[in-house]
Model the fold of this input.
Amino acid sequence: MDTISLASLDIVLGKLEEGILFLDEQRNVVAINDAAAHMIGREHDEIVGKLCPNLFPSTPCARTCEESGKCSLMAGTSHESKLVQDIAVARPDGALIPLHMWATALPQDEPLAHCAVVLRNRTREVQLEEMAGKRMRLGALVGQSRVMQTLFREILLAASSEANVLITGESGTGKELVAQAIHDNSSRAKKPYLQVHCAALPEHLLEAELFGHSKGAFTGAVADRPGRFEAADGGTLLLDEIGEVPLSIQVKLLRVLQEREVVRLGENRPRKVDVRIIAATHRDLQTMVKDGEFRTDLYYRLRVLPLRTPSLRERRGDIPLLASTILSGMTGHYKREDVTLSTDAMDVLLAYDWPGNVRELVNTLEYALVHAEDTSIQPRHLPAEILEATPLAATPKEKDEVQLTRYYRGTAAASEQEVIQAALSEAGGNKSVAADKLGMSRTTLWKRLKQYGIA
Done:
């Protein structure tokens, strides 16, 4: 069949969610579908025959059209490319509808229309942007950087869907927090939320943990037991570190995703389950697929909605907010509510690369809180590996504090003053030797001696 009837074409256009306006070379509307009429808020006969720019007053697109006398969306476009504009249309009923708008050129021998203008309603997208933009946290996730605001929007979008989600990212970036936020903001929020750490169990135990088992299915199976899929029925199941799952279990996972049913070990009877799957991994699953270590079909079943958690290096601007939030949560536990981070210590945190990401930041702050003598965390209270890896080039004072901290950890001294006294004692009173031990200039050492009243 070489052609399609106009009636069939009209039916298809009427079912589309996108609005379509067909324009002649003078930019007059010659045809329109129902979706476009609804977006513009007018009847067909109020739109057909009208000049396209007049339907979208006060928009950049309309102004450019009026100035040039040509469709601005058609500038430089072809059948393979499109120029997209975001506009807001004020309908006669007062509603303001945000739209994506672009144009597609039609074949030159088409007698009725020169191009088609496509409209897509972006109300839901704008709502998600507003919801994410108003918050510095989503569940247990904290951040106001651009990458985190983008992640918040993607989480809310994923939460509004039932599709499987694959979360990727480095270790310590909070993939399990993303999964929890998706569940908590979804229609399944009041149903079970369970996790399985796939790397923590040997193969035979992982299979029983996921799918359940009957009594006597293996040594130690003294009673029937449902698996995590059954226990999470109606809710969400997080498969953490999915890249560690053996190929033999990947086959069974694929069957559960396809058939929506599980078979317990030692049984033949399938049991229906309704579970939303979220998988997470720090490994490169695409490379594993190429190397034959991960099934291609399972990969694409899981990766319907891909999300990526950014590393802490990509969101350094969030470190002060994160550190403040984490520290405030710890001070109550340690009954040290008055402890804060000094400016110098914050500079160290901002300069460090954080290979362990947020998890490492949490451990670092807990270490510093334990070692802080008073109400202010200084650079010397931070772990040695962070001080050694951080180029503290801002001020000589910072360099002195780092060296003092390294020297201090080799002594039984409890304060900076005692560190200096210990170094002088070891140096037999020789200030030059003591200054070398402490990693500071003789002038700086002299100032410290004067400050502490050390003869």
About this structure: The two ends are 103 Å apart (CA to CA).
